[in-house]
Design goal:
alpha/beta, Rossmann fold, 2 domains, 36% helix, binds beta-D-glucopyranose
Length: 397
Amino acid sequence: MKKAMKFVVALGLVAIMGVSVIGCGGNGGNDAVDTTEVVDNDDANVEETGETDDGADVATGDQTVGVSMPTQDLQRWNQDGANVQEQLQEAGFNVDLQFANNDVGTQVNQIENMIAAGVDVLVIASIDGGALGTVLGQAKDAGIPVIAYDRLIMGTDAVSYYTTFDNYGVGQVQGQFIADALNLANEDGPFNIELFTGDPGDNNAHLFFNGALGILQPFIDDGTLVVQSGQTTFEQAATADWSPENAQNRMEAIIASHYADGTVLHAVLCSNDSTAQGVIQALRTNYTLPAGADWPVITGQDCDIANVPLILEGYQSMSIFKDTRALASAAVEMVQAILSGGTVPVNDTEQYDNGVIVVPTYLLGVESVTIDNWVEWLIDTEYYTWDQLGVNESDWR
Ligand code: BGC
């Protein structure tokens, strides 16, 4: 039933640079910040680059890249911060890496400081994509190019490029997974489903939700799927800060009101692994699986270290693997091209309209990961080690 669906939407391949195995939360902190030597903005776009043995551009000057990440609370951003920092440093750049504690004001201040220090390029994963217009206006005035990282920055013409995964495609894979797992095309149901997505300020959350609902909405409309809670809009399904605790609290309230009387819950759409963690925690402690019922189909995204055991134990049905090493590589290639006056790699110049401009984008593909193929994607690609996951190789090979 749960056949592994390989869904490759890569529109081009980004070479994965040599990156050591990624650790869980805690690495890639606020260390290794070097803002002491910065390049005059006037020189920012004409700094000379050298060549490595493999022909890649390496910065030869004292160029600094400001990297602004949303939070260290979620594994995703520690990992991305570490990857981007490491790959930029390998390419010869100084890096000013900051995490903003999921606080918009902090992120704005950090970016202001980077601008004042004269960074040559900004790479920003925004907390609230619509809240950076003013500060990015300052970046534009200072001639500093801005790369939106993973999350689109909205409502400004000061964002130069964007690199991300196919976010709408992520939602489609999640929705299709549920449709296949419940055999919605052939079964009348009704099947009960609840919907959990991410932070409203994150443009990606809207894309994930819309992608999934693009698949699931027809089944809701014809009654094959029923949302017992009635919470079907994006706003109702949203999870502030993508926080596991917020998802857990909402799931507990839904269980108490709609599934405490033996009603079967067949599926929960979770837009990512942190929301899935909260939902699974709520279900494990508050939902009594009715006799004969299967554990609900539960989706996720990111293949977080904490979620791999949940997949292996059957609590979470799938996750989406997004190789964050490749995203870091894409961002670094953009930085190199911008600063050397080269052609910036993009493969989508239509989809990512931020309300003011269509931002030239480099999109990467995603993979659906299940208990059937996780070794191939998470171990064989050296994304994680067996030790990191606390899993015995001999149990799975
Ligand atoms: C990212 C997801 C992540 C979520 C919460 C989104 O913008 O694309 O990979 O799970 O933020 O950090």
